[in-house]
UniProtKB/TrEMBL annotation, chains A, B:
One GO MF term attached to the UniProt entry: homoserine dehydrogenase activity
Protein name as annotated: Homoserine dehydrogenase
Residues that bind L-homoserine: E190
Similarity field: Belongs to the homoserine dehydrogenase family.
Gene name tied to this protein: hom
Organism annotation: Rosistilla carotiformis
């Protein structure tokens, strides 16, 4: 049987999982690849670590040149996170004639056009299934399986850490900080979870999906985004009372006026599929003009789900499918004009959840509805509970759900309300998912 | 831009949808295929039908030879149902040098090894995404996206007609016959819905999936199967009372003793994803040893969802991906030994729902539990309502949920119970889904 030599750069959690699949299940990968996939090298920073002792003699090396200078190594899984040295290593791999598989979404979101352009010049290819949604093969599904469709919308829970935190806050009434501490203990959150919880990670993934599904060329940093780090358990509780759950939704939706793109904690109707995504799971609801709605649900991160995607890419690359897709689709082509324009965030319609604290005095509700009315934001429902009857406070919480209004108008109305004398503290404003 | 000429054989519902996508969205298919996909011919039985008048001049023909003798036509979507002449036409297409795309699951389930063997001999390939689950791209997901995994289990709602009928019976308390009449009116059931409602269609699809996911070679006709045609609204009602829904589940599950395969109306815990699949939707829950659980939900039939899958296959075939997959995976290879053995149905463990009518007299429950006990079938819960207190009947319904027991033992116990003097009429026995 033909043999394709493979290397891994970076034996962290995912790299170790990839090595395990290649070494322990050679029969399985050979059956799907039509050839033996042979793990020739794994490049690490410190080859003396005890956990590498189980790997076959000669596989582990600290020298990238052992990969670059071995012309028999055709496919390399580049599994180093961050931008540098990941970018430089990827360029070196391409320049030495390797096809590259990567799980690094930040690298693609930041340097996609450069890396893909260089790969095309060199006649090499890049596979990146593991960069978005881990075990859910959304890249191949959009690029290949749903290729007969104009994708109309794509709404996803793309950050497992955020979803785990929100699920725990909702289930146990925990504060955000306590949920983070617990998630760190359980291995669901990094020591510094900033990029996960502030919406950066989801925005980078959304930028990649928006490019593949819509031909948009958004810079991830330009995607309007909020994270779950400002969520208060009180909002999860009110959402529940209103028949909703709060999820960190990444949304791309095509309309006649362009593409809507944003990442925000969003109230999603309870009982609908996205609302019921629990713990560290990811899910993506896609709507195509021919296929209609297709819903995907699976583990978005973790060692073996991500390794599953990386090894599928290694197989696709060894078989030659990746090369065909890469040549045909010309993903991340910097010379290509975007096929859609992005709608300005302020113009996007949306429904909103507003929570504020007001003095319990006559005329307050009228004042607030007056501001909303002036900004043409109409009210769908209100929750105002009676004040605590022990007389300790004359400040009461007020929750308002609006009908559809432009983001900009809703934001201006909320600001104006926050400045009213009868309003105490900040106005919390969250988006509400429209449609199923 | 390069041009690949395409033909369609059979302009029924799906064929018309495929023609529509090719003709109206040439820019889209060209972008994904890297070449223009040009609809050269559509072979029909009666070219004079008024609905063909909109197609471009010269496309519609009654003569298959117009396709067979045109060497420029490289890819043919063969969209005729049934076994003959579909089989003969497919062989002719392969022999004249065409790659073939088909949606005909019955043909593959019955003649897969012959057709795939011939295609391999001739150096041609066959694509069949649309044969299972319509718009859910489960074939590509199993064959390609999840290829790093040993699939452990696959549980699906694969027949949209059955699911529509069960949903309506459950929602409206309709009888099976009334639900069929309504489904026929709405276009969700064929004039003769036998193959859909008796489990044949789901068993054919399960045979294809079991082959791809597990390397099994089951004959579809050997797969134990029950349909929804015997379902009584009373069972849907009792299931609901017990916290379940009834769904026609197709199950393939790998264990140390072999592969479990069957199609049966099954009680599925309410609130779990498969239980909440409504109307004509399909869904498939896959579990892989690396990726964990992945859940797919979408439209399993209908013109445009199925056309979406056919056109994705046409694109994959034109790009060359299908050929690579076909050469590598050697699907439906009659010379290959199955990689798993099938477990005898009688040995399969399962939980069961039993419903029967008993005389309301002392000792009856004891007699029945005695029979179950002798067959080592233990009881998890019982519903026995009081008899109608108007004295009109002394026969009462009794519903029993069992713990896990082998199918054979449960069947023998149910038969023995049916023959007890205190039992009136038949014993209804349904499987209960184990696990999430």
């Amino acid at each position: 049987m033909e043999k394709t030599k493979v290397a891994i750069v970076g034996l962290g959690t995912v790299g170790t999982g990839v090595a395990k699949l290649l070494l322990d299940h050679g029969d399985r990968t050979a059956r799907h690849a039509g050839r033996t996939l042979w793990l020739q090298r794994a490049v690490v920073r410190d080859a003396s670590k005890p956990e590498y002792a189980d790997l076959p003699e000669g596989v582990v090396t600290e020298d990238l040149d052992d990969v670059l200078n071995d012309p028999e190594i055709k496919v390399v899984a580049q599994l180093i996170g961050g931008l540098e040295p990941a970018r430089t290593i990827m360029l070196k791999l391409l320049e030495s004639g390797k096809d590259v598989v990567t799980a690094n979404k930040a690298l693609l979101a930041e340097h996609g056009p450069e890396l893909f352009g260089r790969a095309r010049e060199l006649g090499q290819c890049i596979a990146f299934e593991a960069a978005v949604a881990g075990g859910i093969p959304i890249i191949t599904n959009i690029s290949q399986c749903l290729s007969a469709n104009q994708i109309l919308s794509l709404e996803g829970i793309l950050n497992g850490t955020s979803n785990f935190l929100v699920t725990q806050m909702d289930r146990l009434g925990m504060s955000f900080d306590d949920a983070v501490a617990q998630a760190q203990e359980l291995g669901y959150a990094e020591a510094d979870p900033t990029m996960d919880v502030d919406g950066t990670d989801a925005a980078q993934k959304l930028a990649i999906l928006a490019h593949l599904a819509f031909g948009a060329h958004p810079r991830w940093a330009d995607i309007p985004r909020l994270g779950v780090d400002q969520l208060d358990p009180a909002d999860l509780q009110y959402a529940r009372e209103l028949g909703y759950r709060i999820k960190l939704l990444a949304v791309a939706r095509l309309g006649s006026e362009g593409l809507e793109l944003h990442v925000s904690p969003t109230l999603v109707k309870a009982g609908t599929p996205l609302a019921e995504v629990q713990d560290a799971f990811n899910a993506i609801a896609v709507r195509g003009d021919a296929v209609g709605p297709v819903f995907y649900h699976g583990l978005g991160a973790g060692q073996m789900p991500t390794a599953s995607a990386v090894v599928a890419d290694i197989i696709d690359t060894a078989v030659g499918r990746t090369r065909l897709t890469f040549q045909t689709l010309k993903q991340f082509n910097g010379d290509e004009q975007p096929r859609v324009s992005l709608r300005p965030f302020s113009e996007l319609p949306g429904r909103y959840y507003l929570r504020l604290h007001v003095n319990d005095s006559p005329g307050v509700l009228g004042e607030i509805t007056g501001v909303l009315g002036r900004h043409q934001v109409s009210i769908a429902s209100v929750i105002q509970h009676e004040p605590a009857n022990d007389g300790t406070s004359d400040v009461v919480p007020l929750v308002i759900m609006t009908h559809s209004a432009p983001e900009g108008a809703a934001g201006r109305a909320a600001n104006e309300i926050e400045n009213l004398d009868c309003v105490v503290g900040k106005v919390i404003r969250l988006r509400v998912k429209v449609g199923e």
